[in-house]
Amino acid sequence: MVLRQLTKEESKVRIKELVDEYTTKIKDREHSLDERNTERFIERILQILNWDIDNFDQVLRRDSVKVEDRTKIPDYVLYINGEKKVVVEAKAFSESLDNPKYIKQALEYGYYKQVR
User: Fold this and answer.
1) Is the pLDDT of residue 46 over 90?
2) pTM of the predicted model, to two decimals?
3) Residue whose C-alpha is closest to residue 115's, from 79, 73, 84, 81
């Protein structure tokens, strides 16, 4: 079954609704902040942005990347026409994305994965 792709405006509305939903659940403590729930949140955003999360040609989970002498595993690598375009690294909802450690990690993943 092929789903209709959302427009940019529809995507914005759906993402806001999703963020509001998770924010409410977190405040009400109905929603645990475990790894699976974080992954589900990210996957729902990717779907809203018209990524086919079940298509390995578009979305690879846990694809390894060599960073200097270590192997690291970003949560998602997104591809367009076989080229790496985006690396997604999940963090707990409680973590600040302004943390320099996380910024460095994201930049390293993109650089060493040769994301263009």
Assistant:
1) yes
2) 0.75
3) 84
